[in-house]
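Task 17 of the worksheet. Students: predict the tertiary structure of the chain below and write it out as structure tokens. Keep your answer in the requested format; marks are given for formatting as well as content.
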Amino acid sequence: MRTAFIINPKSGKKLGCGDIEGSIKKGFAQAEIVFTEFKGHARELARHFAEEAFDAVIVAGGDGTINEAVQSLAGTQTALGVIALGSGNGLARELGCPLGPLEQRVSALKNFRIKQFDLGRANGEYFINLAGLGMEADIAAKFDEIGVGGKRGKWPYFKIGAKMFFAYKAPSLKVEADGKISEFEIMSLVFANGRQYGSNFKIAPKAAFDDGFLDMTVIRRANIFKLALGLPSFFFPSCKIVSIADTYKIRRAKVFTEGPFSYHIDGEPKKGENLLEIEICPGAIKVLCA
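Model answer:
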């Protein structure tokens, strides 16, 4: 199989990019290996490898780097593969990618199979795992701000989330989903192709990458005590003390806001004016998975 690896050296700092390259060469001696040099570079590199008819492009990086590659691999015959180097590694967990030693992460790919996955699309850009707005989009925007010169990882993300959790003011939104109009006061509104953000936080436990639907999960406005009681159920579905979320299977949606807003695609922060358009794109990408 003709394979290329795209490595984000910033994501790989804690593991050592030289170690990553060495592990890849041991497992895939003939593979082409390239490093990203700037934001958006993975998108350019993936487009090049798709145009050169590579069988697979494997991304070693976080969710943002993976999402860049998705934009270029959608609709092509080149499959996406993942080596998890991010913080939560939500997509990697969903694909069955190991999170152990580097050589294990690389060698496991040899036994992966290619499957056809759906993609979501938010305001014209693809997402493979999750898109949404509300508190998690604001957290993603704040987390992105500390990316230059700041410490990233799970702990800073948790601190930002905890601080925002106690101060968040839930907006009111009008949502048209498959022709049905509803109004919600939301903490978060998530459109899920996969099941989890990362670290096993499953926002949509019944979502599937190949069912032709997105799972629209609405986390409703609630007082702090109800939210605190409801959050554990996202990690432990059997531990549902109170319900704070509703989930709907949808194909298309329009979210109307009263002005500019933040949203995210696969954790990457974006800005919108007053409308977020969402749709499912069935079978739009080939993916290597366990």
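Marker's comment: The two ends are 17 Å apart (CA to CA). The first strand starts at residue 3 and ends at 7.
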